[in-house]
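QA checklist item 7 of 12: single-chain prediction sanity check.
[x] sequence parsed
[x] length recorded as 122
[x] structure emitted
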Amino acid sequence: MDADFHNKKPIFQQIKEQIEDQIMDGRLREEMQAPSTTQLVSFYKVNHLTVAKGVNELVEEEILYKKRGVGMFVTSGAKERLIKKRQKAFGEEYIDELVKEARKLRMSEEELVNMLRERMKK
């Protein structure tokens, strides 16, 4: 686990994204127990409510689920849901801006695609 609390995002959001990253890169797999709220509080040295807010959002998004008296677990299909969510966010945050700037520069679709292909090779 690692966090950058100098980031402009709220701490609960950063913790949530750290858990998502662990699912995305396979450190946390489907049906695997996730770190407890107590472990997260101890690791990040933040308030319990801050951690709970991030974890509860993951529960609402069906990324994690609670087993009463046992802990939090990664839901089946969580990684696929995260991929779809992040692809959508990627399009909205980066691609839309990329296309907007390309239009300002009067770049053709072909020029933009070629530029992307070149960058993907690196």
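[x] summary fact logged: Residues 79-121 form one domain.
[ ] second reviewer sign-off
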